[in-house]
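Hi R.,

Here's the chain you asked about this morning:
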Amino acid sequence: MKVIVPVKRVVDFNVKVRVKADETGVDIAHVKMSMNPFDEIAVEEAVRLKEAGHVNEIVAVSCGATPVQEVLRHALALGADRAIWVNTGEVDVQPLAVASLLKALADREKPALFILGKQAIDDDANQTGQMLAGLLGCAQASCAFRVQVINAASDAARIEVTREVDGGLETVALTLPAVITADLRLNEPRYVTLPNIIKAKKKPLETLNATELGVDITPRLQILKVKEPAKRPGGIKVQDVNTLIERLKHDSVL
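And here is the predicted structure, written out as tokens:
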């Protein structure tokens, strides 16, 4: 079974982001970038499925300019077998365009399974996986909490995915091909060792572009303005419990 895992380069989750002075977006100049945490979980899950004998090849995919090769090499160091870089230059590739690029790659690679992070921490769109499943016309399970392969060696192979929902846990069975999006509690990604980083440099990394895949990546959404959230006012002290109750009843600050 071949698995494709899309990964995205985003501002590192430890970085405190700042809005540009002209409010056109977030300032990423001289800021540490890394793989989207949800995508790292997706790569780890694919590697675990391979270690269990259910997967024979893991292909990492990323769209963007030259620096995205860093996250592809990181995915290779985590255990992916090869990588595909779709060079989109400096274009802001939005979820529908990403899903369309992945659909074109699916037609080319014929994977049995896509595992994506449920969302990217930069735009929090949570759309690409669902759009991809729609374009492929295949089964999907979002926000996966647990993934299990059933009858992997037979033609009746399926994936059982447990999801966290408002009422508890929900388990769904997917026939292949399928799309899964990973939630935070699906697993804990492994630490990348130096030997694996060195091995990753020797693994194949193929370069394509949107034109070769026949996909129009022109942005369809326009960001009008980006603003920081309003600052929370400081706390206050009250003399006694009765005063506190009155303030809780009538003071919107509390």
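One quick note: The helical segments are 37-51, 69-78, 95-109, 128-136, 194-200, 210-213, 241-250.

Cheers,
M.
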